[in-house]
Amino acid sequence: MKCQILPSLLAADFGRLADEIRRVAGAGADALHLDIMDAHFVPNLSFGPDVVDLARRTCPALFRDVHLMLTRPDLYIDRFADVGADAILIHVEADCDIWETLRDIRRRGIRAGLVSRPQTPVGTLYPYVALCDEVLFMTVNPGYGGQAFMPEVLPKIKALRTAAPALDIMVDGGIHSETAAQCAAYGANQFVAGSFMFRQTDMGAAVRKMREACEQAARL
User: Where in the sequence numbering do the catalytic residues fall?
Assistant: First the structure.
């Protein structure tokens, strides 16, 4: 499967968001990852639909992967679809009808995804895989960037890859070239990197290095 690199805008300079979005596009990244936090489901508040709209207007061709860390993501699917989300991911732990919310995303012609916290058993995801284009494993406790990678998530990645060989499996949290390669060896093929990518002087070189490391690990 193709290894894809998704810089997370959460780690960008918020005073230069349009320039930072252009930097992601210029670096050859596969997509821009946008973390939407409500200060209730997770202990942080990030940004809302206007930033997704900014990404669309700034770099229309850059895929927008929107991760809703919301208690009630079902109430916001249309809002984020209307401003240009290309994929919308919701948490399996969210307080909504997961089946119906995934169906709502797909009805809008958008890729649907499911996310799990590090402590959530992988089996919780299995009933919904048929409605998912991608599954995201958080490899830190969601809410803040810059945390250390949690290797205990790796067996969950392997278990899901075995159960769903064609599914896009994403990881987010403490991801750099070395941890991304570890995840690739266990079956992940999409890699969200925030702090690591945005502190690079040459983001393009970092994207290429991470992609090469993941492709090599996946072949082993």
Answer: 35, 172
In this structure, the number of other CB atoms found within 10 A of the CB of residue 128 comes to 17
Q: What pTM was computed for the model? A: 0.97
Maximum C-alpha span of the chain: 43
Beta-strand ranges (E) seen in 103-155 are 111-116, 134-138
Label residue 143 by pLDDT band (50, 70, 90).
confident
**Helical segments of the chain, H only:** 17-26, 49-58, 77-82, 98-107, 154-163, 177-186, 195-198, 203-219
Cα 74–chain centre separation: 18
Confidence of residue 134 (pLDDT cuts 50, 70, 90): very high
- Tell me which amino acid residue 96 is: C
Query: The tokens 């992601």 sit on which residue?
Result: 24
Q: Would you place residue 147 in the very low, low, confident or very high pLDDT band (cuts 50, 70, 90)? A: confident
Sheet holding 190-193, edge to edge: 4-7, 190-193, 168-172, 134-138, 111-116, 87-91, 64-69, 32-37
d(CA 39, CA 199): 25
Rounded-to-integer distance, Cα 210 and Cα 102, Å: 30
